[in-house]
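FIELD: query
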Amino acid sequence: MLCEGRVVLITGAAQGLGKAIAESLLAHGAKVCVCDINVDVGEVTVARLQQQHGHDRVFFMKCDVLEEADLKGVFDAVRGQYGGLDIVVNNAGIADEKNWSRMIDINLKSVIRGTLLAVDVMSAAGKGGLVVNLASLAGMEATYHLPVYGASKHAVISFTQSCAKNPHYKHANLRFACVCPAFADTAILPQSDLDPRFPFPKQEMQALVDVFGVMNPRKVGEAFLELLREECLDGALVTVSEKFGTQVKKWKR
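FIELD: result
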């Protein structure tokens, strides 16, 4: 199978897009650590996944991505459980313009932190590996109703592609890519509490949603598999939406 035996760590995977990615990878032979700050939901999710795929294939760990010690503990636990690490998916993220500083911490700083931990672990093991950071189509276009969210996701794309361009990482067989979803039916979708300093009429929001549609999170899990099938995925951006499907934008180094 596509991911047979690969060891994967996914942040923010108790529900939503992270859960969908975990389900896709498990269905194709991977071993997965689901980590999330939401313990109750995470344990229920993993119990169901263990029933489907076996207790030895997936486990849950509580992790607050804002706490470096928590994140490092998850990396250590994965290596302890499975003896290595092949793919890291920095998925945890929020959309909250009113608490924009915290949003930057989660959407950008934790992605950088998770990427650097992955680089350290994978470089030390000598096998290399893949880091996939969840960005958004909002990071590829102007989003005046969610300017800080868009800025955080744009920064994730820039950071990820900068890592992909690093020749030292290339020599270490480390690869980097971004998945950039449009609207998905997850807890992050409702935006009824926007910052009034960034006004955005509801009819304009609906018009934007109508352009891309609202997809089932499973489509993002399927898009992740499309990324893994690519031979030259270093620095790639994978866009996915209900109406336009999955498109892998390869990046020429």
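FIELD: remark
DSSP finds eight helices and eight strands in the chain.
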